[in-house]
Amino acid sequence: MKKFKYITGLLCLLVGISCTKDFDEINTNNQGFTSDEVSAKYFLTSAQVGLYAPGRFEYWRAHLIHTDRFAGHFTFGMNQSWWADGLSYTYDPGYTDAAYDWLAGYFGNIKSFGDLTAEGGEFENQFMYAMSLIMKGLYYQMYTDTFGMVPFSEAGVEGFLTPKYDTQMEIYKGIIADLDTAMNIIGDEERTGLGIDDAGANDVYCGGDLQLWKKLANTLKLRLGTRALGAPGENFATQTITEAMSQPLLDAGSGSVTMKKDFVISEWTSSSYGDVWNDFGVGSDWTVSQPLINLLQDNNDPRLAIYAKPAKGGTFNFENDGDDDFMERVDFMEAALIAAGATYTRTDNGNTVVLEVPSGQYIGQPVRMNGLTMPYVRYDLFSTPSDAIIQPRGKEAEGYPEIIISSADSYFLQAEAAVKGIGSGDAQALFTSGIKEAMKLWNIGEGDADTYIASSAIADISVGTTEEKLEKIALQRWLASYTDGFEAWAVVRKTGYPQELAAGVNNQTIFELGTLNGAYPQRLRYGTGAQANPNFNAAISTQGPDAQGTKLWWAK
């Protein structure tokens, strides 16, 4: 019988299971593990978890400081915060490096699992290898859509210590080819094997269901085709979209592919928003943005109470201590209340303005305000994330789902294709299904979803110009991507919606213009370590300056 000899402690660490129960027996077994006791599935979970729920350090710097705020869902900069909301709009290598180092370095986790399961690998399993190709696609879509050109074709290839940077078009084509290979391998198979070779619960994305993996891969293919459509030089997007829509996609039957939060394992291994919220105190807290709150509230969206909490409200005194722009800043705070439809009273008395705001109202904080405006941005004036988002570690209650790809996005992408004349689908029917699936992600009942669809103009694409229909689809995709800042940010950059985000800012009295001089951020800069690759300069020459304002290949 074939034997596999591993250091017991290392195997237990990677597997993520307790080693103590049979320690004495294992420690005295010099022959190691037999082939019927080991499987690649024990290396699968660790390769999956960290991409969507990395440690607290990465979650803080990559998600909250950058993508979630560029997406326009969350805001910093209230008066008790450590930073103004201009943070990251002004380039800071200390924060950007953390995001880059995590994402660039994560490829090793995906590659290791692929190497183990590939033909000739230690745990050769063609179906788990197919899963690794799909995981690679998920990873690279996030990676390239964050930075642009990155190493792909030569990454991890023996002999290439300094791989070249591939263009986004090349990367997209490469991902699609890998997805096609994976789907062909899976075919009609349902499981990765029997017994020890069944990925089962170790697969925290799909539970070992290969047909769900296949739908996931095909939906990712549809997303890539849609995002590439109309980009300079692309000649494959329409065919990609058409192929994807001819095969099974994530739908109401399959539901969304999400990863359940694990509030037991170490926050340094797998974290959540709650770890930042509860560990650091009010200085690290954040509020929910004005664009998000107002879009939900203006359309009687039942997700409002699921996404956010009402503002605490209170009596807010603003006293002019010599600020020449005092009244403009106070007026701006009042304008946020008006935009939210809030009930309040204002009293002006010389150099003092008092705003009295009753509790229980949803009020979003404007995005990207500067440090001089920050003292006026009172914490209790604005809505904060719901309990599901800031779920404390160790509690039994359910936290928010980590979205891998949702069935809602699948329907929205198909609706977009129909509006653009690709395929023969019913755009409104697909759009309606997408909204219902988006509501299901947050346990909102079908009745509430139906009421919203019947009464909200934002849910109707049966009328209007093509651009008006596409705007509504983009806004629904943006809403459905709440807590998935990477994807929500990509939606804004590709579509230009919500318009108030994509337009950037220009009033330097109120806003932080930052490194971008008020423009909307289009990418993250590479980490400083990327410059060690001699191919770095060639990438910059092709793509454009290593700046946040350099648009990616597919951006509007």
Automatic annotation (TrEMBL):
InterPro entries assigned to the protein according to its UniProt record, in alphabetical order: SusD-like_2 (IPR041662), TPR-like_helical_dom_sf (IPR011990)
Pfam families, per database record: SusD-like_2
Stated name of the protein: SusD/RagB family nutrient-binding outer membrane lipoprotein
Gene3D superfamilies, A to Z: 1.25.40.390
